[in-house]
Design brief:
Largest sheet of chain A: 6 strands, mixed
Strand order of the largest sheet of chain A: 7-8-9-4-10-11
Oligomer: heterodimer
Order of helices and strands of chain B: HHHHHHHHHHHHH
Strand content of chain A: 25-35%
Number of strands of chain B: 0
Largest sheet of chain B: none
Structural class of chain A: alpha/beta
Radius of gyration of chain A: 19 Å
Largest interface: A-B, 40 and 22 residues
Chain lengths: 258, 330
Amino acid sequence: MSRLMTEGLRAGYGTRGVLDGLDVRIPDGGLTVIVGPNACGKSTLLRSLVRLLPATDGRVLLDGEDIRRLSTKEVARRMGLLPQSPLAPDGITVEDLVARGRYPHQSVLSGWSAQDERAVAQAMAATNVADLADRHVDELSGGQRQRVWIAMALAQETPILLLDEPTTFLDIGHQVEVLELVTRLHHEGRTVVVVLHDINQAARYATHLIAMKDGRIVAEGAPADVVDAALLATLFGLQARVIADPDTGAPVVLPGRG
Amino acid sequence: MLIVCAALALLTVALAVWAMTLGSYGLSAGQVVDALLGTASRAVHKVVIEWRAPRVVAALVFGAALGISGGIFQSLTRNPLGSPDVIGFSTGSYTGVIVTMLMGASSYAAYAAGALIGGLTTALIVYLLAFRRGVQGFRLIIIGIAMGALLSSLNTWFSTRADLDLALRAAVWGAGSLASVDWTMLAFASIAIAAVLVCAPAAQRRMRRLELGDDAAAALGIPVERTKAALLLLGVVAVAAVTAAAGPIAFVALAAPQIGQRLTGRGASADLAGAALTGSLLLLASDVIAQHAVPKVPLPTGAVTICIGGVYLLALLVRESRRFTEGGRR
């Protein structure tokens, strides 16, 4: 029994079904990475898990309860999400943006509490953006900005954190920086779910891999057990060799005939 | 930020007192304050409390309502052009009032109902036409502008079909003026506007999350589409309450939130308190100009705000299009 799981989940946009009856278990305390070719439904799955997209059939269970029965705020206290392309209002400062993550813990009357203050400070320290607190978000580099957004999701103080393609549009240096940060968050005890494009990065950082194609799960498990030449052929139609990283033992994909 | 708000409030109060000293029966600021405290002579009391105060209070209350309404719509559409007078909601309220006039009603309550129904219907139509898997700001603005154009030609058609008396009344009212506001009318409008003010802090908290994008707002625990619909309703109520009493007053809703943001230094983030205060100040100043700029010729308040607003709108369009082309090049 996982805190977050789905049963026969179907979801999609308009009349177009994307997810085809998925049974997913997100391991508690794990770093789950969802991979697959474009339009395989990986972002759709992530969006359904946090109820951004309603299930057309089946259900999402959070702590054993149908997520549709929980209030939006209750869901937001247990699960944080960094969406694919969030918008920063012009001229907003880093600290102001991070502070907005506190919304699910506040009410109109409660105002700004010491707990809020501490959560924001911790989130900025964890993501290494404390020095940028007074800077405007629009003048930051892509990597810095992504760390600020992660800080906002962290300020929400949820045991479960979902990130939708957090490395897209970043150069490789910043990609690794973000992934190392995500790993650290996972080591601190959070359940983390990430959608990634790069199969090598997925294999390197995941403790649990979910490989999807055409709205179905093709394989799932520890990367070393799952990633092989057959999987790459199925997922991407790619001929590739898979070798083990000499240091970590994680699978490394070498595309081409070799 | 608190200091800026306090300074704005002080300036507004000072202007309000000064506005009540002006007129054919000249008064000193001291006499006005005495009248407000209830210690002035009966003549002064009559001039201040019965003649001048309703108009000044109306400018303050209506200005605040327009500022808040503009702040809500600009935040919803994420665009400084997204104000109720640009996207047709004010015009819709006007249409509602003309229709009630055509049906023979002449009380404020009837006008208010007409304005509210007209504004809400327009909002609903614009909302439904703009809806495509959620409401996108820019779509809403474009459809709103088209809707506004449609309605204002409808308004013209109505007034050419109506009899002369009615057409005149509609035209006077349609110019937007605080001249005919009395305490009863003001009380009615104030009830609606007070309700809007009570909801404003909660609305602002949600608006600041919606600014981050629909997905981020939902992840922070906001039911997105329901919240947007509620905000839309709140903004329409504010603008309709004003329109019913004073006719369509342009520009205040458009400019007040923007000027307020720059004054309070909140960046582009929603700030309804600043918008409300700036709105009060703007409308009061416009109304003073309308009454006293041309000796012996009172202008409609709406005419003054439109003149200032035209210049402002032009500047805004130039700046937006420049930003757009720069963004395109980048």
